[in-house]
Structure formats: C-alpha cells, structure tokens
Amino acid sequence: MTGVTVREESEHITSPTGRTVGHLALHYRNPDDGPLAAQLLALFGLEETQMLPLPGGNFYRFVVAPSHYARGDGIIYLSALPEPQVRLIDAIRSALGVGTDQQDDAVTAYRAMLAADPEASFHFGFLIRELEDLEALTVALQDLATNDPDFRSRIHISMNRARPGDAAIDARLDASPVFGQCQRFAYGRAGVQVFVETDLIRAGQLGESMHFEFDYVFPGQANHILSVVEM
C-alpha cells in the first residue's frame, strides 16, 4: 500500500505468562499536528512500526520496546480525532465558555488542579530504567520547549523529586542537572517523575492536552513511588 511503512520482524510472536497491557489509542486534533505528535512520541523513546497516510490525518503505530514488534501488546496507536468527537469537544467547550470572560469556574479549578498536580487526572506513564536516560530526555525536551519553533509553546515540562530521607538518593538528586533545583516532591520515596504536557496530543475532559509521565525508581528499594503512596 503506497505510503505505508511497516517494520518487518522475523521473530515469532511470543506468549507471555499472564496478561499484559495491549494498546493505548492516542489522538491529535489537526492533520498537520500528526507528524509533530509522532515525532514527539519518537523522542519519548517509542518506536514507530507503521505510518498509514489517510485523508483526515496519518495513522501511526508505535511499540514501547523492540521486543513488542511481533507481538500484540505494548502498542501505542496515534490518529486524528474522529469528527464526531471533535464536535462533542467543541460543544462542551462552548457550553462552559472555555477561554472566554464567561468561563465556568469548574474549568478554572480543573486547570489549576492539573497545574499543581499533573497526575491528578488522566495521564500515561512510562518507567525509565536509567536515571541518566531520564535526565538526558528531560534536558532535550526542555531545549525543544525553549528553542524549537515547532515545539515551543506546544510542550510544558515539570517534575517531582523523591521525598527526602535517604542520604544517597538525596545527594544524587542534589547533583542532578534536572532535579537539583526541583522543589516539588512525589507521593512516595526512592523515585522521581517528569511530566510532559502537550497539546499536540488531545485528551482529558476538555480535549485540550495530554499529560505524559516518566518515572525512575532507585534500585534496591522495597517501598518506592510506584509501590507505596505516601501523603
């Protein structure tokens, strides 16, 4: 099929024990945002396995790691919002006066909640194996948000560092180019979080933006941010 790119793999589909996460469907609004949204997912470390050009905007298939190429899990789909969903979002925003002088207080409160706590509503989290990889990704995204004309104003980055108390972890984070000056703390110990909000991908109750979360957990910890929640 013209314009379709698919990575072919010779490996057989493996059958893991138990259930795995199959797929997640993400959407962009405008056809022109498709390539940029796909580029951002690639920067996140996802691997594109298919691009299908369609009249209303490209359809993309990604996997979270090479081991998922020939499997049916670990998949992220990216496509344009269907027209009925666009109409619904527009109707909701119009009824709530979003962006106008008559904006409903519920919208203002919702946005304030997300600004204070990006993981308070719908979001998509990744686990990163090495802290240095997460730091490098964050620095690269910060550069895009500041200097790249395509991504400037389209992505916003925030972060949480681990709750204090472990001297070795505290010292490592104090020396970090990303977390050294961070004054926000996670809902747990022995891990850090980076949040990326982007309107290149639309989600949430208002169809405005998507929040992505990138986590790192320090090794050798029985209790950490992804195993025990602390208030």
Summarize the structure.
With about 230 residues, this protein is α+β, with helices and mostly antiparallel strands. About 25% of the residues lie in helices and about 20% in strands. The protein has five helices and nine strands, in the order ββαβββααβαβαββ.
Overall description:
- With 231 residues, the protein is α+β, with helices and mostly antiparallel strands.
- It contains five helices and nine strands.
- It has helices spanning 33-43, 83-95, 105-116, 131-147, 167-174, and strands spanning 5-6, 23-28, 47-52, 59-63, 75-80, 124-127, 155-160, 191-198, 210-217.
- The longest helix has 17 residues, at 131-147.
- The radius of gyration is 19 Å and the shape is globular.
- It starts with a strand and ends in a 14-residue tail after the last strand.
Write the layout of secondary structure elements.
Layout: E1 5-6, E2 23-28, H1 33-43, E3 47-52, E4 59-63, E5 75-80, H2 83-95, H3 105-116, E6 124-127, H4 131-147, E7 155-160, H5 167-174, E8 191-198, E9 210-217
Parallel strand pairs: 2-5, 6-9
Antiparallel strand pairs: 1-3, 3-4, 4-5, 7-8, 8-9
